Amino acid sequence: MDFLLLILLAVLASVLGGFYLLGAFRQRRSGEPPLDRGPLPWLGHVLDFRRDTATFLEKMKRKHGDIFTVLLGGYYYTFVMDPLSFGTVMKEPRTKLDFTTFAEQLVKKVFGYQTMIKNQFSLENSNKHLMGDGLVVMTQAMMSNLQNLMLHSIGTRDNSQKIWKEDGLFNYSYNIVFRAGYLSLFGNKTPKSTGSLEKDREESQELFREFRKYDQLFPKLAYGVLLPGEKREAERLKRLFWNKVSVRKMKTKENISGWVLQLQQERAEQDMEEFMQDRYMFILLWASQGNTGPSSFWLLLYLMKHPDAMRAVRQEVEKVLKETGQEVKDGAPLVDLTRDMLLQTPILDSAVEETLRLTTAPILTRAVIKDMSLKMADGNEYCLREGDRLAMFPHTAVQKDPNIHPDPLSFKFDRFLTAEGDKKKDFYKDGKRLKYYNMPWGAGSTMCPGRFFATNELKQFVFLMLAYFDLELKNPDEKIPEIDVRRWGFGSMQPVNDVQFRYRLKL
Q1: Which residue among 197, 322, 380, 491 has the highest number of C-beta atoms inside a 10 angstrom radius?
Q2: CA separation (Å) from 127 to 119, 338, 456?
Q3: Would you say 292 and 283 are in contact if contact means Cβ atoms under 8 Å apart?
Q4: Using CA atoms, how far apart are residues 211 and 440, in angstroms rounded to an integer?
Q5: DSSP 255-317
Q6: Which tens digit of pLDDT belongs to each residue from 226-283?
Q7: Residue 389 backbone dihedrals phi, psi, to 5 degrees
């Protein structure tokens, strides 16, 4: 009996020791933010957090204030919910708060990518190809591919073809934008092959179907909670994409973007194994195309649900076309939508920014590299522990704050316009001007380098849709769908259901 008791005590000691090592018994130290370990050892609050991140964080803010630490699946996260304090976080050097550590863990888990190469996401390369003159080239490629896919889907311009076609707006928008973006970045079938344009359309269509399967598994994959069957499917899809965007396949393509080519060449020169280069190409595909399709859906839907917004943006599109001597009619050339034209659309710019304010919800996370202190805007200073993570959730802290954006749940296409029609940049909270008033792309040194190309994709898609087509919702009274709360934290949100719409070439 005594021997059995010793065994039970040893097991209990081991369990308690394990929980201790996992931080289950952590206590708040003097000067640290409020600590909330949650109801479960190691898991903490992760179930509530995953169920609905926004609701959970709002509850924690009401309970603890603008800064608090919670246990989520073995990691302690300190959330800063005061946007006036975001600037302090962004100014901290990487020797204290580092994004790379967290990002490396995520891409290893989700994409199977791991490397010792530093500066993986070459900012200089991205700026060269995704801004300025490089963006002009990317815009031209995207325009050609968008029109190829859009106009092929509707048929010819014969009067017999000027009939309404129906589709789900989310499916249509995501499909067209993803495929055009994929072809613009990863190239076209060589024109030497017969029917190369048709092969491009077929390949990109099949790739989109597989991408959607992966996209739907992505949140569970990131959290590591896939069921056995889902895990097998995720591995199958990863292998498929490693092959589809592989270095070997790239050698058979033409018109590959300079951005993708240079990133691949940099890794080859640093002796990265080719199979790992393939995995990196998959990261580029997801990072560049995983959010723009859903965002294009929301933008077009909001315009269709708000006639005043649709009217204002249509008039702007028509004005830009007229000023460049272009007209959409039978026998006319295809629209030549240039980068310069996209710079003359302040109303569309505001509608894009308002859409992103409502529907993008990234969690901006940093690893705490060493013990440090963080001073909040209210003057209070808090100690952060090495090994923890610091996070911000701008969707609720900034983008839905009624003190910053009055009537924050409503779509107001001109919210980001001044009375003179210029871009509005002055937003305030508690009488203080905010530097970060809308953060769909993140902020600071880790701000998405592809944001200009992504914004261009959105604007090109909507511009061309309004230039070429009449559009209407099949059921004009249908409500805007709710967002899928399982995707909080991963960029652009997606709807819980699609919305049917009709489109036809303008008569």
Answers
A1: 491
A2: 14, 19, 15
A3: no
A4: 22
A5: S--HHHHHHHHHHHHTT--HHHHHHHHHHHHHHHHTTHHHHHHHHHHHHHH-HHHHHHHHHHH
A6: 999 999 999 999 999 999 999 999 988 989 999 999 999 999 998 999 999 999 999 9
A7: -125, 145
Beta bridge partners of 471: 503
CB 218 within 8 A of CB 224: no
Could you tell me if 408 and 401 are in contact, meaning their C-beta atoms sit under 8 angstroms apart? yes
Structural domain spans, the chain: 2-114+363-392, 123-362+396-505
DSSP codes joined into one string, 174-230: HHHHHHHHHHHHH-EE-TTSTTHHHHHHHHHHHHHHHHHHHHHHHHHHHHT---HHH
Neighbours of 391 (CB within 10 A): 20
User: What phi and psi values does residue 370 have, to the nearest 5 degrees?
Assistant: -155, 160
- The mean predicted confidence, pLDDT, of the chain is 89
CB atoms within 10 A of CB 263: 22
Alpha helices for 77-131 (secondary structure H)? 86-91, 99-111, 123-130
Indicate the CATH number of 123-362+396-505 among 1.10.630.10, 1.10.300.10, 3.30.70.100, 3.40.50.150: 1.10.630.10
3-state secondary structure (DSSP) of residue 499: coil
Sheet holding 500-505, edge to edge: 165-168, 500-505, 469-473
When mean pLDDT is compared across 72-81, 206-215, 331-340, 440-449, the lowest value belongs to: 440-449
Nearest Cα to Cα of residue 415 among 357, 362, 464: 357
Q: Do 226 and 234 meet the contact criterion of CB atoms below 8 Å apart?
A: yes
Please write the tens of the pLDDT for every residue from 133-156.
788 888 999 999 999 999 986 654
User: How does 307-334 read in b/e, with b if 16+ C-beta sit within 10 Å?
Assistant: eebbebbeebbeebbeeeebebeeeeee
CA–CA distance, 136 with 467 (Å, rounded to integer): 20
Structure tokens at 427: 């937003």
Residue 131 pLDDT: 76
Residue 440 neighbours by CB distance under 10 Å? 25
At 188 the pLDDT is 87
Between these two residues, 419 and 135, which has the higher pLDDT value? 419
Distances (CA, A) of 9 to 4, 14, 191: 9, 9, 74
* Residue linked to tokens 């859409």: 355
Q: Phi first, then psi: give them for residue 321, nearest 5 degrees.
A: -65, -45
Closest CA to 380 of 24, 66, 2, 59: 66
Tokens of 327: 């007209």
**Residue 125 CA: distances (Å) to CA of 122, 249, 252, 281:** 5, 22, 23, 15
Whether 262 and 135 have beta carbons less than 8 Å apart is answered as: no
